[in-house]
User: What shape does this take?
Amino acid sequence: MRAVVLAPWGLPALGVALIAWAALNDTRLALILAVWFGAWALNAYVSTRARSRGARLIVPLIFGVTLLALWEMAVQLYDISFVILPAPSAIWARMITETDVLWADFQQTILKGALAGYAMGCGAAFLTALAVDRSPFLQRGLLPVGNFIAALPIVGTAPIFVMWFGFGWQSKSAVVVAMVFFPMLVNCVQGLKASEAMQRDLMRTYAASYGQTLRKLRLLTALPFIFNGLKICTTLALIGAIVAEFFGSPTVGMGFRIKIEMGRLAMDMVWAEIAVAALAGSLFYGIVALIERKTTFWHPSQRRG
Assistant: This one.
């Protein structure tokens, strides 16, 4: 079966044709398409010549700036209602004027609720994985129960945790613990099984104890799985902390603010909270990924082509 390859001039020609067609029907759409295809061509040119690390960062930067520019253009040119979709400029202006409120919400939701629950949930999952690895009984009994708990919907468990632990950040951390525990547990258990039988036999021939084998072999081979679980749980922790605040919180927090401002139709503030959460989540994930790269530099997944 022969592969169909687009000629080098195919994409620019298609873009010009679409822009020309749009110009005959809607000049606003033609302007948006012109910016889109122009940024696409620039990104394609840069990506084919990106060799250094700094050059590789330009590609996602151009893509992100293009999306924001198209968003701003669409809102301004088509006069989209502020309630339906505020412009990025309006969201940025609200972020500047409400810095104190956003920082207080960030501290309550991210630093207290999400990070505390993330640390407790992932730490408990790692210790439980060590116990499961040592006990066949726990392998058969605990993992199915953990799967059942992980399947419980957050909208059902969050109000219960709020009633148990109060309206403070403690109840939000409890929700985060419940969300991150099972994904982290599964990755840790699989990671502890990742070492090969020949490697374990070699450790036994050296008369290595279980603890020595765990420290010098099995934990090292499990590191990619552990970091995979940690990266997955970064987003789950933020989602859990924010959603839990919809069901009861003090007068501060991202989830609380989103719920209140939605009722006031202050959509620029809602999007400002979403932007802060997205930036915090990206930074959190990036820090974990950077630690993984420094720690598991020997693993094939970290080798650059």
Notes: Confidence is low (pLDDT under 50) at residues 1-9. The CA atoms of residues 13 and 149 lie 54 Å apart.
